[in-house]
Write a structure and sequence with these properties.
The complex is a heterodimer. Chain A is built from ten helices and 13 strands. By secondary structure, chain A is an alpha/beta fold. Chain A has a six-stranded mixed sheet with strand order 5-6-7-3-8-9, with helices on both faces. The radius of gyration of chain A is 23 Å and the shape is elongated. The longest helix of chain A is centred in the last third of the chain and has 17 residues. In chain B, 76% of the residues lie in helices and 2% in strands. Chain B contains twelve helices and two strands. In chain B, strand 1 and strand 2 form a beta hairpin. In chain B, helix 3 runs antiparallel to helix 4 and helix 3 packs parallel to helix 6. The longest helix of chain B is centred in the first third of the chain and has 31 residues. Classes of the chains: A alpha/beta, B mainly alpha. At the A-B interface, helix 2 and helix 3 of A face helix 2 and helix 5 of B.
């Protein structure tokens, strides 16, 4: 069975600006994938290629093995875009019914409206909705066709904490129902708590593609930092359970998932320790570390 | 067996899509009163005014001026709906990114355009019906059943170049400038073409300019229903001009559409 989404060595330039520099992404059916990256990293460009809104400068894009502009492929996709509009004067219900008619097997409008939590606003004109309600309307329009694959481009931007939680619950429910979901976000914890797989995009390339745990494990754990008067070398610390070591000017920083064991070993080896700090590295740090590594590699 | 048929359906049926898309256009436009009221009421008001002043005169043997004025403002009403709907409507959709989400949907662009054309037809017929009803009931104009119908199809056919003109403007102009640009082109054209004031009263050099305009030939095609001697050219000649203008303006509109597309979606 063809994967839901395939980007094969996709390049995209806007004039002199290279937005994507050879991106490979495969999303099997039923997976919930987060595209994570800072603003301008190429997330929206990737989504636009998948939606057929933009054409790759080179490389290939496929949805269910078809061209994204093929109506059969489109008929299996729902989408929530960052910037888009609907006629202000039409009501929530009219819009959901209209967008449902574009799809071969839409869900009943009332169900899509209930899903989005807009029952009370069903007869309200879309122009009179609050910002959060408007986002929920776009959510209803994304799911009303009962698609197999749903794209969300920065869906929670501008949502308050309450609606954001409800929204993420909705997405989880869809994932449980076997839908394939691709969402972009620059909220790391959002990707962490939601996705089965995180694809980190930075400066137009994929710099990491793994489970949230693997991404965190690449750097994360605890950061143990201390000063010492002894002339320590890497050899003195060999065998300690750390993932990364930095030695500079009498200061030692090491990253470990077992900081207690590290400290016990250090004491046992008679290493003199001053000014000790042990702090948790979070996904944010992992993310910064990953993108910095990528930067170093591209510079070198 | 129906279950199997349902599961193998890969795309939505066009009919229902077209119906709902057209309905959405109509609803959304009717709920924007500024546009609707102007398009529907202005032709009636103009007709009422000029019919009251000049209606009793004769424009040709046996043709009273009331009929001539009615045909003039019928042309105005239909062309007005076409040029404004396609001009301002398209510019609005683009500037408010209504086209973006729609574009990502499994809605064929041809269906979206067909819905726009259908909507414009319905709206134009509505404007005509209102004007005809007023002319018949209040203005006392009697044309005969065949002539009313003859006039209607001429008006719709004659307004085709205006669809092209409106779309061309809609794909170049922003939402704020589109109304000004449409007015700046359409209003002078209506005068030069003898639609708002009789062609005969215009100075010769203006008539020379007016005679090539699409709206002039739209008017000529329509006035032919009042019998020979009223229009300056026959229906055949008028139709040829209208065909030529339609091809030219639609070609320009398609070019503008492609430019806009390649800017946003390439």
């Amino acid at each position: 069975m063809e994967p839901a989404v395939e980007l094969i060595d996709a390049h995209k330039s806007y004039g002199p600006v290279e937005a994507l520099k050879g991106v490979n992404i495969t999303v099997p059916r039923g997976e919930l994938v987060a595209l994570l990256g800072p603003n301008g990293a190429g997330k929206t460009t990737s989504i636009n290629l998948m939606l057929g809104l933009r054409k790759p400068t080179s490389g290939q894009v496929k949805l269910f093995g078809l061209d994204p502009n093929d109506r059969r492929a489109r008929s299996r996709c729902g989408v929530m875009l960052q910037e888009s509009g609907v006629p202000d004067t039409l009501t929530v219900r009219e819009l959901v019914e209209l967008f449902g008619s574009y799809y071969p097997h839409p869900m009943p409008p009332a169900r899509a409206i209930a899903f989005a939590g807009l029952e009370e606003q069903a007869k309200r004109a879309s122009g009179k909705l609050s910002g959060g309600q408007r986002q929920r309307l776009y959510f209803a329009l994304a799911i009303c066709g009962d698609p197999e694959l749903i794209f969300f481009d920065e869906p929670t931007v501008g949502m308050d904490v309450e609606s954001r939680r409800g929204f993420l619950d909705n997405i989880r429910e869809f994932a449980r129902a076997g839908k394939t979901i691709v969402l972009t976000t620059h909220y790391l914890e959002e990707a962490d708590e939601l996705a089965e797989r995180i694809i980190v995009v930075d400066r137009g390339i994929v710099v990491a593609d793994a489970t949230p745990d693997e991404i965190k494990a690449r750097v994360v754990g605890k950061r143990v930092s201390f000063a010492t008067a002894q002339p320590l070398s890497e050899a003195d610390l060999r065998g300690l359970p750390y993932s990364r070591l930095e030695l500079s000017g009498g200061r030692v920083r090491l990253f470990s998932n077992a900081p207690e064991a590290v400290l016990r070993d250090l004491f046992n080896r008679g290493v003199e320790i001053r000014d000790l700090t042990v702090v948790g590295a979070d996904l944010e740090e992992a993310f910064i570390a990953i993108t910095h590594e990528a930067e170093k590699e591209t510079v070198a | 067996m129906s279950a199997a048929a349902v599961t193998t359906r890969e795309v939505a049926p066009i009919g229902r899509m077209l119906f709902l898309q057209t309905r959405a256009q109509l609803l959304s436009r009717l709920r924007t009163p500024a546009f609707s009221v102007l398009s529907l009421a202005l032709p009636v008001m103009f007709f009422a005014l000029f019919n009251a002043i000049y209606g009793g005169q004769q424009v040709a043997p046996g043709v009273n001026a009331g009929k001539y004025i009615l045909v003039s403002y019928s042309v105005y009403a239909v062309a007005n709906v076409m040029v404004f709907n396609f001009g301002i409507g398209t510019a609005n959709e683009r500037s408010r990114k209504l086209d973006l989400l729609q574009r990502a949907m499994p809605l064929p662009p041809a269906v979206a355009t067909a819905a726009q054309v259908l909507f414009a037809l319905i709206f134009a017929l509505g404007a005509l019906l209102l004007l005809f009803a007023y002319a018949y009931l209040v203005g006392g104009i009697r044309l005969g059943a065949v002539t009313w119908i003859d006039l209607t199809w001429r008006l719709l056919l004659g307004s085709l170049p205006m669809i092209g003109l409106g779309m061309a403007i809609g794909y170049i102009a922003g939402a704020n400038s589109a109304p000004a640009i449409v007015n700046a082109i359409y209003l002078p054209m209506s005068f030069l073409s003898g639609i708002l004031i009789p062609f005969g009263v215009l100075p010769k050099f203006i008539q020379d300019v007016g005679q090539v305009l699409p709206l002039y030939h739209d008017g000529q095609l329509a006035w032919n229903v009042l019998g020979s001697g009223v229009a300056n050219e026959g229906s055949g000649t008028a139709l040829l001009w209208i065909g030529g203008w339609t091809i030219l303006l639609v070609a320009i509109a398609v070019r503008m559409y492609r430019l806009d597309e390649s800017r946003k979606f390439s």
